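Internal tracking record. Fields below are filled automatically when a chain is submitted to the structure queue. Please do not edit lines marked as system-generated. If the sequence contains nonstandard residues, flag them in the REMARKS field before resubmitting.
Queue: standard
Priority: normal
Entity type: single polypeptide chain
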Amino acid sequence: MKLAEALAERAEAARRVEQLRARIVSSARYQEGETPAEAADQLLAEADEVLAALETLIRRINRTNAATDMGHDGTLTDALARRDTLRLRHSVITAAADAAAGTGERGYGRQLRSELMMLPALPVADLRAQADTLAREIREIDVRIQRTNWEADLLD
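SYSTEM-GENERATED OUTPUT FOLLOWS
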């Protein structure tokens, strides 16, 4: 099985657990004289099976990520950490540029000459350029990660 397939299975198992959780909660209590819509104990047992399989799958994915070499990006785990921090850095830079530009503020600045002007404390154009560079880096590393996901075999 390829790593990408395991990742899809992991996502499906997580969705399944969430669905089971919702069904368990809605079936955990019922009114006297009525029958519950579903047997909550059976749903709990099913959720336990899915969670056990999910844990095994996550362990194998993590093991594979740590062992898969991506060349200059390091291991797949290293590349994932880099991508996550690039995304956070992009978010911070974009928020800073938006705030300095006054994005989201009401009005168009001064209404009267007697009002004080709001001035940017940061270079908006430079921040936007940084954000564009970061976005490109994110796309590039994401492509390399996706390629690796489809090439790497899942470890036991």
